[in-house]
Amino acid sequence: MEVLTPRSLDEALRLKSENPQAVPIAGGTDLMVAINFDRIRPNAVLNLNEVPELRGWSRANGTLRLGAGLTYAEAMREPLAGLLPALAEASRTVGSPQIRNRGTIGGNLGTSSPAGDALPPLLVAGADVVLASVRGERRVALGEFVVGPKRNALAEDELVTAVELEPASAAETFMKVGPRNAMVIAVVSLALRAGEELRAAFGSAGPVPILVRAPRDDADAFPERVAEAAAPIDDVRGTAAYRRHALRVLTRRALDRCLA
Amino acid sequence: MKIELTVNGEQREADVWEGESLLFALREKLGLPGSKNACEQGECGSCSVLLDGTLVCACLVLAAQADGHDVVTVEGLGATGEPHPVQEAFVEAGAVQCGFCTPGLVVATVDLLAHSPQPSEDEIREALSGNLCRCTGYAKIFDAVRLAAQ
Amino acid sequence: MLHAAVVRSPHAHARVRALDLSRAREAPGVRAVLAPGDCDALDETAEFEGRAVVAVAAETFGQARAAAELVEVEWEELEPLLDPEEAVRRGSLVGEPRRYERGGYERGLAEADAVVEAEYRTQTLNHNPLETHQCVCEWRGDGLDVYISTQYIWGVRDDVAAAFGLPPDKVRVICEYMGGGFGAKNGAGGYVTLAAELARRSGRPVRLALTRREENVGGGNRNATIQRVTAAAKADGTLTALGGEFICSLGWGGWLASTAGPMQLLHACENVRTVEYGAKLNLPAMAAFRAPGFVEGTWALECLLDKLAAELGLDPLELRRRNYANVDTMDGRPYSAKELLECYRRAEPHWERRHEVRARSDATWKRGVGLASQIWYGGGGPPSYAWVRVGSDGRANVVTAMQDIGTGTRTAMAQIAAEELGIRLERVQVQVGDSSRGPFASISGGSSTLPSMGPAVRAAAADAARQILEIAEQRFEREDGTLSLRGGEIVSPDGTTWPLEEITGLLEDGQILGKGARGPNPAGMRVLTFGVQVAEVAVDVETGEVVVERIYAVHDVGRVINPLGARSQIEGGIIQAMGHTFSEARLDDPHRGTVLTKTLDAYKLPTIADVPEIVCELIDKPDAQLTNLGSKGLGEPPIIPTAAAIANAIRDATGADVTSLPITREEILAALREARERERVGAPSA
After folding, report:
1. How far is CA C242 from CA B126, B127, C225, in A?
2. Residue A149's beta-bridge partner residues?
3. Structural domain of residue C548, as residue ranges?
4. C565 closest CB neighbour out of B20, B28, B94
5. Is the CB of residue C177 less than 8 Å away from at least one CB of chain B?
6. Could you tell me which chain C residue has the CA closest to the CA of B136?
7. What confidence score (pLDDT) does residue A185 get?
8. How far is the CA of A120 from the CAs of A75, A89, A90, A184, in angstroms?
């Protein structure tokens, strides 16, 4: 096994194109578990901790750009938390302080788990994922980026470098149901943005996060719409029937909160 | 591979396997067994350390990622006979039973109090929710944090 | 030191068809490899997942793990038996079914004005001490040193000596500190044999530490149960019959803990019939887990009692008082002491809060209060020994080969010795944790460390005090038996005092050696512990979420030695019970019998964010019949009644009857639907 530690984005992209099998690592909150448990033994890992271009966030022409290396802890801090309240709320529910200090938005995208807590709030915010390689940069809508459970549109020489999205112009929120008060993988989670249009996205209730939209006037029927859009499964964390039920309840509560 | 890092204020060098965690390097290569290995997946907080001043689980940091960085472990907080005030508070409040989770809780509490010297009950709940204790039921840990905050 | 890794069966039931160790033997750093035939702890037939097949020792843990991966095993998979009811039908049992009957059960049913029946289930639970099972074994000549995380130094000594055919004292067992056990570390276990054999063959010390994944499969568990129970009573609440069939999924071994125990012991009832089955299944064997049997049995019994109270229209606390047992329910012996009525009395104001708690309900959150009581052993017993050494500086050393498993036993022993010697706590040192450096001491299980060891330490300290006073009486020319030790001084009835060191200083290099032994428990009496807990919950009737807002606990364990440590035991027991109630469950693949929840993200322990307000009280009245100390153990009692108190609070809040642990949100919603249905059709609430 080899550890590649680039010091710039250019170097990172070059190393990724030369070593397409190299697995990116930032916060390590997913990859290190797999290595510790002998689930994978990559030939190489690409350590992105030393790439300054991936850090932090910026705002230009009204669009927010979140570096792939933005941690959950950073997403919880003002002023970003005020610009993306649902993402901040989702970040607060991720793991523990130790995990939030290390885990990154880019990692959540790269892993593309149906339970990824950052995905629903990014989806309701209409996020584009910025992918880069030595061949150049491209933008993919988040809904198209995730193509299946833990599968995404990344080419083998590409890295997720950022997400771009609009700050919240309307009320938005995030809710999660888990079996314990902290440190939970969601049984089901939901992000809602209630502008002229109602937009909801959920986690852990289908193979990929799905965006459900409706006119604001259709709020009464919206919880049912969201529940119907889900394609949950039975697993050790909960049954499909419960997930659908909980989504309905969470959507109504999220609407009550946002439309109040 | 060789890594160089600052541990508890000292410049240290270690020869590590590329896939090894910082926790393993600390315990097995650097002679610092204070950080405990209990879950290997960032669920229990027993291996909590400060990496460049940030609270992390050492089991989720690749040792190679710590190359060139600063690490503080529980051994760097107090010494035998000279416990850190947070350690004294844990003893005083009876916040220790078997003691296995205690090093991680002490590091996490030091981090909490650095950011919030007078934490509310909810802040304590949030800050220590990544540190599992199987013995105490946590009530005395609340007491210890409040005591240390005084 | 070498590090070991173990190759284990990935199947619940399988046979090794072929085994190729050649690549593992040649792997870098490998110093010893063990296969079936080399060691009793290895087997070619796996009757449960995690059965050890091959063990490897190498220079580093990484090398051992890599070599273990190179072991090639060809398995022939066999059909696993996983259904406990099927096991009972087929007679696949650990031991014989255990039957108990007193009075006339059928007659009791016939006399009743109300009969309630229910089926309760409990899940498989893992101990998950934060420190996994681990040891280091090192041979020294013909003797073996074992450094180990254990609850019973002497049990490990005997187990290991037997495995290697050694005289027991050739095995030295050392456990100065350990990271939690909860019953899972009561004996040596096969992993110690493997480490010792690897050390023997390699001539090097060997460390073998289970990974968390191994711990969650083979570290022992609290077995799942199916309990079909019946309670019958007169209109005034007098119990006329209690009965139950208890099917315990023990896995491939273990023993049948007393799940029927609470039904037989807790409430007065003349007519009781129980039968318990230990289903032998292709699953990892159970191990003792903090009040084994009683935790599961109390859940069912105390939920059933509330169901009966609802049927009779009686107050649940009043129902328990009306069936208070004044003598032992099984054989009529008097209790050495019993303060359960006092527990009920002290619980009363907390129980009374239910009116105010219920009133805080709204459309979404329903609130309620429930209670449950508890009975358990915890009296300890002989043998246990301690030595107390007093040097010329007047400081005392308590020496005994017990272990402190994190319950603060060291502190308690120091307190006992300090009190007896009349010296400050800081002047007492306690040396424990080494079978070669102290006399035999009790297992730290069954809530027995303090009640077994404490009296021995007190006797040893008293013996040392007697010797000091004899010297003082000679030196100061006082009559025998007139002086005493207090506040670090020798005190005469006439008010004269001398510093203790004035006598001990005469010793120079000499020492006063006090010896103490644990005496017998009182003859013809039943020694038990008692308690009551009251839970307050809020139930979100839309999502099924339950928040436990407050738990009041009152326990009677005789004299309390260390109130701070005692409260910590209660709080720890309650939180562990809350994990049992809501979030913890070992889940097995229903077809393959393999464990699905091997890691701590899947097996969810309670966090600090789950902690409710906990109010504890201890009766703290010495058991005058029990030893020179009057103390019983407190490790287990607090975990026993919590789940039932919470379930009874959920019933109080919502009318929903939950019958399975863990209580999931889905079960709450289903129980709420049933409760609404009962109301709609006007069926009786039972």
Report:
1. 46, 48, 18
2. none
3. 221-378+524-681
4. B94
5. yes
6. C572
7. 59
8. 14, 11, 9, 16
Q: Is the pLDDT of residue A114 over 50?
A: yes
Does the structural domain A1-48 have CATH classification 3.30.43.10?
A: yes
In a domain, B107, yes or no: yes
Q: Please tell me whether the interface predicted TM-score (ipTM) of this complex is above 0.85.
A: yes
Contact (Cβ atoms closer than 8 angstroms) between residue C257 and residue C288: yes
User: What single letter denotes the amino acid at residue A9?
Assistant: L
C474 Cβ contact list (under 8 Å, min separation 6): none
pLDDT at C99 (0 to 100): 98
Contacts of C667 (CB under 8 A, 6+ apart): C544, C658, C660
Give residue-wise pLDDT tens across range C100-158: 999 999 999 999 999 999 999 999 999 999 999 999 999 999 999 999 999 999 999 99
d(CA B22, CA B30): 10
Q: How many CB atoms lie within 10 A of CB C426?
A: 9
Report CB contact under 8 Å: B67, A5: yes
B136 and B94 in a common domain:
yes
| Residue spans per domain, chain A | 1-48, 171-259
Asked if omega into B119 is within 30° of 0 (cis), the reply is no
- Asked if pLDDT for residue B94 goes beyond 60, the answer is yes
Q: What is the mean pLDDT of chain A?
A: 92
C180, C211, C611 ranked by CB distance to B134: nearest:
C180
C494 in the same domain as C441: yes
Question: Using the beta-carbon criterion (under 8 Å), do A182 and B59 form an inter-chain contact?
Answer: no
Other CB atoms closer than 10 Å to residue C470's CB: what's the count?
A: 15
Cα atoms in the 13 Å half-sphere on the side-chain side of B37: 23
| Number of domains forming the structure of chain B | 2
CATH class of A171-259: alpha beta
Summarised one tens digit per residue, pLDDT across range C328-368 is 999 999 999 999 999 999 999 999 999 999 999 999 999 99
Nearest to B101 among C130, C567, C573 (CB): C130
In terms of Cα–Cα distance, which of B128, B129, B134 is closest to B109? B128
Distance from CA of C396 to the nearest CA of B (A): 21
Provide the pLDDT for residue C686. Answer: 43
Residue C290 pLDDT > 70, yes or no?
yes
Number of residues that this document lists for chain A = 260
Percent of chain B with pLDDT over 90: 97
Chain B nearest CA to C431, separation (Å): 17
B91 and B138 share one domain: yes
At C425 the pLDDT is: 97
First to last CA, chain C: 63
Is B80 within a domain? no
Whether residue C681 has pLDDT greater than 90: no
Is A3 near chain C, with CB under 8 Å?
Answer: no
State yes or no: pLDDT of A184 exceeds 60. Answer: no
Q: Give the total number of structural domains in chain C.
A: 4
C415-440: pLDDT as tens digits = 999 999 999 999 999 999 999 999 99
Kindly tell me if the per-residue pLDDT of A182 is higher than 70: no
Residues A236, C610: C-beta atoms closer than 8 Å: no
Is the pTM for the entire model greater than 0.95?
yes
Task: Indicate whether B34 and B57 sit together in one domain.
Answer: yes
Contacts of C86 (CB under 8 A, 6+ apart): none
Q: Which H, E and C letters describe A23-74, residue by residue?
A: EEECCCCCHHHHHHCCCCCCCEEEECCCCHHHCCEEEECCEEEEECCCEHHH
Pairwise CB contact (< 8 Å): B94 & C608: no
User: Testing the interface with C: which of B28, B138, B143 to mutate, by most C Cβ within 10 A?
Assistant: B138
Determine the structural domain holding residue B113 and report its residue range: 85-149
Of the listed ranges A58-72, A193-207, C379-393, C594-608, the one predicted with least confidence: A193-207
Q: Which among B17, B56, B64 is the nearest to A98, CB-wise? A: B56
Q: Find the closest chain C residue to A93 by CA distance.
A: C609
Q: Is A182 on the interface with C (CB under 8 A)?
A: yes
